[in-house]
Every structure is written in C-alpha cells, then in structure tokens.
Amino acid sequence: TCFFSLYSHKNSQKMANLTLVTEFLLMGFSKSWELQVLHAILFLLIYLMSLMGNLVIFTLISLDEHLHSPMYFFLKNLSFLDLCFISTTLPKSITNSLSNSRSISFMGCVLQFFLVILFAASELFLLTVMSYDRYVAICQPLHYEVIMTRRLCVKMAAVSWFFGIVFGTLYSATTFTLPFCHSKIHQFFCDVPSLLRLSCSDVHIGVDVTLAMGVAYGILCFISITISYGPIFSTVLKIPTTEGRSKAFSTCIPHLIVLMVFITTSVIVYLKPSQQSDSILDVLLSMFYAVVPPTLNPVIYSLRNKDMKTSLRKLIARKHIP
User: How is 120-174 classified by DSSP, letter by letter?
Assistant: First the structure.
C-alpha cells in the first residue's frame, strides 16, 4: 500500500506538469552559436556527399542495362531508401542550426518520427534480403537466375516497404498518444528514446510492446543474415584461387560492415532504459544508424565495384561526346 501510494504521488506530480505540447525543441549538439554553425557545415557536407553518392548509384543502375541484375536492383532500392532516410533528419537539423532555432512543430515531429522508423525498418529488411541474394549468387550460382527472378525481387522490395510502414505506424501511434510534460528533445531529430523521456507517464505498455516487436524483428533479420553468411564463407574459403576468394569476399565484407554498424547502434540506442538521461553519446550513437549508413553505403558498395566504375566512365564519356 505504501509503495502504491508513493508511486501514485510521483505519477500525480508528473501529471500535474502536463501541458499541451504544440512544438518540440531539438536541442542537438550544443548551445554555442559557433558550434552550431560548425555542426551545420559538417552535416551539410555529409548530406551533400550522401546525396551525390546515392544519386549517382541510382542513376547508373537505372541507365545501364548491364546493371539490371537482382544485386543491382536491390542496391538501387537501397540508394533510394538512403536518400529518403538522410533527407528526413539532416536538412531540418542544418536549417535549425543556421537559423539559431531549435523548434519543430508537433505534426512535423510526428512526420519525421514516422519516416525515420519507416526507412530504418525498410532498410534493415532490404539488407537482409541482400544477404540472401549474395547467398544464392555464391552458393547456388547455376540456379541464381531461376531463383532470383524479377518478380521475386520486386516482391521482396515491396515487403521491405510494407514492414517499414507497419512499424512506422505502430511506433507513431503508441508514442504520440502519450502525455508529454516537457518539450526539449536532446537529439537532432525526433526518436523513440528521447520522446519517452518527455512523457508524463511511467507506464507506456503500447510503446514497450512495439519496442519488443521491433527487437524481435531485428533479431529475426540478424538470424537470417547469419544463416545466409555461414554457407557463404564456407563456400568462399573453398575457392582454390586467391583472386577468386578476394573477389567473393569483396562483395560480402562491405555488406557485413554496414549491417553491423546499423544493427549494433540501433540496438544500443533503443534498448537503453528510458529512465536514463540523454547524453552526447546518445546523439553520436543515433548518428551511427541514421547518418553513417546512408553516407557510407555508396562508398562501400561502389568503391571496389568494377561494374559500377565502368558504368560511370561510360556515362562521363557519353557526356563529353558532342
């Protein structure tokens, strides 16, 4: 009884602070104007690099018929997702820093939140599908074209968007029905952990259930990736020539690096207890799953890819021919 009355008193105090939140403040990295400008310049450079890299990949794969294979189909979809993902967070953060404003409207926060979850969940499934594509290409090369048909590829890409929309809707519906006592988000975009810390209620069963579903989704994707890569590494190690092994590994290792960065940082951020206060570490970890993958993906997937380099040279040569 004593514990219940203490909890009720604490909760009633929180509810007493309840105000109608019409906008949130994205506190970002620093209160210093000089550091805000520095942050804006850094984010602008990252955004332009990501934008250019992903647009180049998307354009090359769309225009070059030699790149119309399942692997490049998924890479094209990944580039589009990355473009959308990074465009959801960085432009607003850059604008706020340059204008010395931190505000984002309630509906703006809802939309940004929904899109971040949508693109993150879609990208995770797409990366999982890409690991299966590599498994078929390396372990069953003779049946690759029979298994990875155009129809199957389109269905897999559609399913990735489906999961993104489902999780985006669930997370948004359960999070924004909570009562908020504060409006300061110690992040550069609207995300789940930061918004939970603003809630007046200590009980958020809907969000907890959705988070559990998200974790289960992530674990299933991770297991699927592990199952795909076990036979891949086993097959690659049996390749007699060093050149053959090197070529096979060059298509797999970059994919694994992106996955590990994306999954581990997401898990750390979303499984951190919501009672703990925000820190600069949370902001940096959020960067690693919301900013780093969309920026690195074009570099990782095209830097050592001969087909992409050849296609780019052809496109540049075509532009210079009168």
Answer: HHHHHHHHHHHHHHHHHHHH-GGGHHHHS-HHHHHHHHHHHHHHHHHHHHHHHHH
DSSP state of 199: B
**Predicted confidence (pLDDT) at residue 266 exceeds the cutoff of 80:** no
Show the tokens assigned to 237: 């190690």
Q: How far apart are CA 31 and CA 95, in angstroms?
A: 15
Number of other CB atoms surrounding residue 129 within 10 Å:
25
DSSP 90-112: HHHHHHHHHHT--EEEHHHHHHH
For the chain, counts of helices (H) and of strands (E): 12, 3
Q: Do residues 160 and 125 lie in contact, with contact meaning Cβ atoms separated by under 8 Å?
A: yes
What span, in angstroms and rounded, lies between the C-alpha atoms of 172 and 146? 40
Q: How far apart are CA 88 and CA 82, in angstroms?
A: 10
How many Å apart are CA 259 and CA 253, to the nearest integer? 10
C-alpha distances (whole Å) from 135 to each of 131, 160, 225, 319 are 6, 18, 9, 37
Domains defined along the chain, listed by start: 22-320 (1.20.1070.10)
- What pLDDT was estimated at residue 13? 47
The per-residue pLDDT for 123 is: 92
Q: pTM to 2 decimals?
A: 0.86
Q: With 50 as the cut, is the pLDDT of residue 57 above it?
A: yes
Asked if residue 16 has pLDDT above 60, the reply is no
Kindly report the number of other CB atoms within 10 A of residue 6's CB atom: 10
Q: Measured between alpha carbons, how far is 104 from 189 in angstroms, rounded to an integer?
A: 9
Tell me, what amino acid is at 253? I
DSSP label at residue 181: S
Exposed e or buried b per residue across 14-49, where buried means at least 16 C-beta atoms within 10 angstroms of its C-beta = eeeeeeeeeebebbbbeeeeeebeebbeebbebbeb
CA 320/CA 322 separation, integer angstroms: 6
